[in-house]
């Protein structure tokens, strides 16, 4: 399961009434490691003039790795995180996460980070099965 959804939130969802704040709070509580990584890179990019900030430290366990993969593989979760933190997220391997300033999306730094060339360069045998 990706998220631990409280009964009250599920009831509101069944009625078609879930706002972004409630959804993002559910993500924060359900995927604390992924939340911490995204919060950290988002804070760093907002505190500098750089186009992006990244996190490239492998998760401490498969539990945390799973949280990160679930958060970034889900369009809804990823989109909620991007709206909440005001960034565009990019993801490589099983752990390298970057937060880009919205104005940098489409620029050369962003295009380079999300390119097939960058993906191939960021591979390593120890991460093959992550």
From TrEMBL:
<dbReference type="Pfam" id="PF20704">
    <property type="entry name" value="KH_NucS_shadow"/>
</dbReference>
<protein>
    <recommendedName>
        <fullName>DUF222 domain-containing protein</fullName>
    </recommendedName>
</protein>
